[in-house]
Design a protein that fits this description.
Blueprint: E1 5-8, H1 12-23, E2 28-31, E3 45-47, H2 53-59, H3 63-69, E4 77-80, E5 86-90, E6 100-102, H4 103-112, E7 119-120, E8 125-132, E9 135-140, E10 145-148, E11 151-153, E12 171-182, H5 185-188, H6 190-196, E13 200-205, E14 208-215, E15 219-227, H7 230-234, H8 241-250, H9 257-264, E16 271-277, E17 290-292, H10 295-298, H11 306-323, H12 328-344, E18 348-349, E19 352-353, H13 364-376
Parallel strand pairs: 1-2, 1-11, 2-7, 4-13, 11-17
Antiparallel strand pairs: 3-6, 4-5, 8-9, 9-10, 12-15, 12-16, 13-14, 14-15, 18-19
Helix pairs in contact: 1-4, 1-11, 2-11, 6-9, 11-12
Length: 377
């Protein structure tokens, strides 16, 4: 293949694509807005699934490196009622179907696998435009520009590449996370640490839930979910950490103190994470020389699949380009026709379809029933 690939975005999807292309001897350049690999923290734990994320890592030739960063035992799962009753305490079975790893560590092994200079840091895209005959120009905030015959938007929810293909824009889905961290949990926050256990803990309830992970270094990372309109959250001053914490905690009045401690005892200021999504089944007509992957193509509310799908997209696109080195358009068509239905599939957890947060079935027992029913099939 003689056409170098231009990738916008050095997230997991864009880097997986670059790595799979490198494995097949296809050059690529990745442009990333962040100034360096350490410009910001990369989020918490990811469970990398054996049916998509791990397949992408196999295609990238990085399974040994992945196994080296897996947090052993963290596939354990607990499900609690709001009153603190433990209804499910499932140990890590060691099968490796959904092993946990830090997003930052996963990103680093992908970065380390690429030739020096593949990622161009500090290149924030300001605009893109079609030049005709499948060529596109990318303009950067510093005034620089790049012209390419194959452009891939791996640049997330607010993609600057997407408008070349689609008029769709993300819309708020009615729910948000409030993110908290508790450090040195076993000694400083023992009740919350016991509630979370050794892996992940879910305490669901219609309209609200608390989800927490035990990360490395004795850290508890919690996502407090609420179904509320944006103006409800806008009325909360998140620059006043104490007031914001109190307001969010009030929505969980009556819940067990070991659960509300994940809100009230946070060692960092609470951070609001509103959820946006593209229309379900988002797709576009084939446009020569450009495509999308990951959240740029099919942004959805957090469901455990986003990073996995982005990596799988990247691997599948890389494999398609390697399989059709002299026919880029056939490669892009094959990739998109497989990606569209794949990204529209409903999110599942432990094999069952996940109820929405507002569903009457979004309870501890409802989650357990879903898992149990799947286990009997």
């Amino acid at each position: 293949m003689h056409t170098p690939v231009t990738i916008i975005g050095a997230g997991l999807g864009g880097l997986t694509l670059a790595r799979v292309l490198h494995v097949h001897g296809i050059p690529a350049t990745v442009y990333e807005a962040e100034s360096s690999p350490t410009a910001r923290t990369q989020g918490g734990l990811l469970d990398i699934h054996d049916y998509n994320g791990q397949l992408a890592l196999k295609a990238a030739g990085l399974m040994d490196e992945f196994h080296a960063i897996v947090l052993e035992g963290h596939q354990a799962m607990r499900v609690l009622d709001p009153d603190g009753t433990v209804l499910l305490d499932k140990a890590d079975d060691g099968t490796g179907g959904r092993p946990e790893a830090h997003r930052g560590a996963l990103r680093q092994i992908l970065l380390d696998s690429l030739p020096a200079g593949t990622v161009r840091w500090g290149h924030k895209v300001s605009s893109t435009r079609a030049l005709g005959e499948g060529r596109h120009e990318v303009t950067f905030a510093d005034g620089g520009a790049a012209v390419t015959s194959l452009l891939v938007g791996a640049d997330g929810a607010w993609s600057r590449v997407r408008p070349l293909l689609s008029t769709a824009t993300p819309e708020y889905v009615g729910t948000s996370f409030v993110e908290t961290y508790l450090f040195h949990a076993d000694t400083r926050h023992p009740a919350a640490a016991k509630a979370v256990g050794g892996g992940m803990m879910i305490a669901p309830s219609p309209g609200r839930e608390i989800f927490a992970h035990r990360e490395s270094g004795d850290t508890l990372h919690a996502y407090v979910a609420l179904s509320r309109p944006q103006d409800w959250f806008a009325a909360i001053d998140f620059t006043d950490a104490a007031a914001a914490t109190a307001r969010i905690a009030a929505e969980f009045d009556g819940w067990a103190p070991e659960l509300t401690a994940l809100i009230t005892d946070g060692d960092t200021a609470p951070v609001l994470r509103p959820h946006y999504a593209l229309p379900t089944g988002h797709r576009w007509d084939r446009v020569p020389g450009v495509t999308l992957l990951g959240d740029a193509a099919h942004l959805a509310p957090p469901n455990g699949e986003g990073a996995n799908l982005a990596m799988y997209d990247g691997a599948e696109l890389g494999k398609a380009l390697a399989a059709h080195p002299e026919d880029v358009e056939t490669a892009l068509t094959e990739y998109e026709q497989a990606m569209f239905p794949r990204s529209a599939e409903p999110a599942t957890f432990e094999g069952g379809e996940v109820p929405g947060i507002d569903s009457e079935h979004n309870t501890a027992q409802g989650l357990i029933d879903m898992i149990t029913e799947k286990g009997h099939q």
